[in-house]
Structure formats: C-alpha cells, structure tokens
Amino acid sequence: MLSKEIRNHFPILDQEINGHPLVYLDSAATSQKPRQVIEAISNYYNLDNSNVHRGVHTLGNRATEAYEGAREKVRKFINAKSTEEIIFMRGTTTALNMVAQSYGRANVGEGDEIVITYMEHHSNIIPWQQLAKEKGAVLKYINLEEDGTLSLDKVREVITDRTKIVAMMYVSNVLGTMNPIKEITEIAHAHGAVMVVDGAQAAPHLKIDVQKLNCDFFAFSGHKMCGPTGIGVLYGKKELLTVMEPIEFGGEMIDFVGLYDSTWKELPWKFEGGTPIIAGAVGLGAAIDYLEEIGLDHIERHEHELAGYAMQRMSEIDGLTIYGPLDPEKRAGLVTFNLNDVHPHDLATVLDMNGIAVRAGHHCAQPLMKWLDVSATARASFYIYNTEADVDSLMDGLRMAKEYFNDVY
Amino acid sequence: MSIKNLDQLYRSVIMDHYKNPRNKGIIDESNVTIDMNNPTCGDVIHLTLQVEDGIVHNAKFEGEGCSISMASASMMTQLIKGRTVEEAQSLATVISNMMLSKEYDDSIDLGDIEALAGVAKFPARIKCATLAWKAMEKGVANDSEQL
Description:
The structure holds two protein chains of two kinds. Chain A is of the alpha/beta class.
C-alpha cells in the first residue's frame, strides 16, 4: 500500500462534502491533481509564458524548452524511440479521431474491415463507425468471454486479411479488464492490419512500453493521470506518421506557404496546427515526474490491492453484483457494480450525501451495457491517493443505501 | 448520513409511483409516439399518447431509469390524462419552474407532482425529473397542428 502521505499532495481531497470528508472514487473519469502539477502550471504562467517555436526573445525560448521538454518526458514515459513519434493533442478522443481521419481515410476502402471489441468506450467506437460508413467498410466486434475478458481464439476468428485496423482499449473503464495488447498486436500484424490502442485507462496505472507492445498507435489523456484537462498524446510509429497527412491546417504546422500550395513541417509538428497546448504539456510533464517518482510498479500494485480489498468487502453485501473479472490480478483499480434493484443514480445520490463520489450511468459504453444487459451501473475507481479507509467508507455508504431503499421501497 | 435530506428527495409518494407505476404500457391506438433518452445517464422513455380535439385522452409510458425519472413519468401520465394540450403544457412549465426553484402557478391542481419540488435541491437529478415532461412537450408540440 502507498503511503497516506500521498493524500496530502492533493489539496482538493482536504474538504467536506455534504458534511462528510470527501471520498473521491471517480478517478477513472478524471483524476485529482497534486500540488506539484498545479504549481508547475502556475509557475509556467507566472514566469515563462510565451508562444513557442518562434520567439527570438528569452521567454519564447523558455516556453519552447518547457513544451519540448514535456515531449521528451512523454517519450520516456511510454518508451517511444523518438520524440518525433509523440504528438500533443487535446485528449484520447481527439487522438483516436485523428488516426481514423488521417490513417483510416487513406488506408481503408470498400469491403475492408475495422475490428473493435464490445467493451470499447464511445470514443473508440464512433470514429470507426463514421469511417466505415464513409468508406463502405465493415465494422466488426470481437465478443467477450463471460467474465468480461477477451480470448485470443475469438480475436483470431474475427481478424482476417481484409482487416486494415484493429482498435481496442488496453484497460476497460467499466470491467477493469486488462487486454493482452502485445499478443493481439501480433495477430493484427500477421494479417497486415495496424493496431490502435486506447490507453486512456492504462497510462495512469501501468508501465507503458510502446516498443514492447509493438502497437502502431497509442492514445492517452493527461487528466486521468494527475495532469490537467485538455492535453493528451498520440503516439504513432514514425514510418506511419511520416506518410500520414495532417487533418488540421494553419499556423505552427507549416514549412512553406505559397498562394496555392503549402508544405508541412517535419514530425511531430505537422500534426500540431495552431498555438499548441503549452501549459497543458507542462502540466502533463509535471504529472509524469510525479508518477515516476512514486513508481508505476508501486501504483499498479497499490491498485490491484485496493481493487482486491474492495471486491472482497463488497462481496459481503447480499444482492451486490460486480461486473468484470473477479480475479483482482486480472483487473485494474476499479469496481463496477449494481446493488439489488437500487438504480445506480439513486445509489450515487445516497453516497454523495455521505461525501462519496462514484460514477453512475453507462460510462460512455452503451454497447457494453447492452452486452451486460443492464441500462446503467455504478462504478468506484481508485487511484494513488485512495486507501482502504476509503473502501470502508464506501461500504458504510452502500449499507446505508441498502437499508434506506429497503425502507422506502 | 443526512437521512433528512434524502427524505426531501425520496418522498413516499415518489417511491410509491416508482414501485407501482401508473399507466405503464403502450397505447396501441396512439396517435403520438415519442422516444426520448438522457444521453448522459442512459435513462429512456417511450411515451404514447392519444390526443384528439386538443385533449389528451390517454397516456402511457414504458421506460428504464432511476426512481425519480420513472416516478415522474408515472405522475405525468396520471396528471395529463383528460386535460387539454394547453393544460398539459402549463404543467410542464410548472415542473420546469419547480426544478429551477422559481415561482410556479399553483392555481392548477398539481396532484402528486408537488412531491417533485424537493428534486430542485439535487441539481444532478433535475434531468431525471424532467425527462418524461420533455418527452410529452415534444410530442404535443410536434403534433398540435394536426390534432
């Protein structure tokens, strides 16, 4: 277990909600930010703010160094070969849309296949639906095993030589499942398809090594990993990014502009049209420093332990259903559940009255809700600042909710 | 726990409508059909109405959602049956004002929906209470010309 000291790094956690100490269990939606990150952003604006890649002046150089320095931190964080492969974007959604619009449009034709899974987040479904509709391509879904995991046999059945793109999440935001990305990438490559990974729920929690995974694209968001909102990353293999066309045109991404034709900057800047998200990148860099100081292996262990403890405690409650794999080693630090007939919204309201923040709803995964045959679920998700005491508070809240609705039903 | 606060939201009349929904089902001979959902949370309602000569003769709903959204749908169908389209629309305005903690017209018989007033204190749940009413408003507005 991580030290409780970590909690003190997060100023927001030190407050009462509805008369109770805040228990924040919604980090899979967005994580809280440590003082180190808040200060890095504030220092950037207080001391170094300027536009990048153009200033002859000193502030311009400082801002450029801060922005490009953050890119190098990201490169190391996911073990990419070069910073040319690291593109700053608004978030995972923008990154996945970019791959669909740029790589997808150029490489997917009529009758070709795009393969995704039933557990995807809407951001890794709709860009492919749109692409498939536009190109007359076929969107195929890999079905899940009963415990919400993927079997490689089923993956092999669905991916064919007509498959051009395989896109899937590394870690499920609902089931907590961790998918065998490396093995699936091998299968995709054997059929000549590229592998696109939605890493939004993985990057905050696991050590990412894009070279080891050998995936072609990897997208993630800063705000789920202690960084600010509005900054995310698209990693792409250099040989693919080199031949891909930008989808946003304007300042910052051009090399030479003529009256009727223009040329682009080299990688990665050709994909970063307009003034970039400088303070966001600085904040993300600080978040990476912060997570690396704690150690990603520690974080992963902490979350397995907390998820294990939560599942064990929650199984004490009659009528509580947990979705996804029951083996804590097979899942990331979140537990999605339903309690008897109590609708998750009603449950979340009762918990909120106890200062406990959980997510209730479809978690941007409507096809998965359909697969689970539920209209909504509740989800408690954990991060480095959560402790067993938070799980105990959740348990108290759940017991009270159960009692309350037993009485009023 | 602030049970007292919760009791303001989950009034017994609301829980009664949730447990024993009135007018659950589909009207086969309906002339107004509306499907509406709350995309952020997954609540859905399928509302059928029978409207003739500017009067709502019958109203039924099917749906899935939390206690507030389903109770509100049940109350809505109960309240608008037999009323004119204009009255039904005024009731929708009452609900909307109630949710915004604004003054509302209590000269109309509000029946059970006064119990929904407590929802205003739970901003995250206002959308649950208004879903059925929005569906009804959309239905009668779309069709008011030909009805």
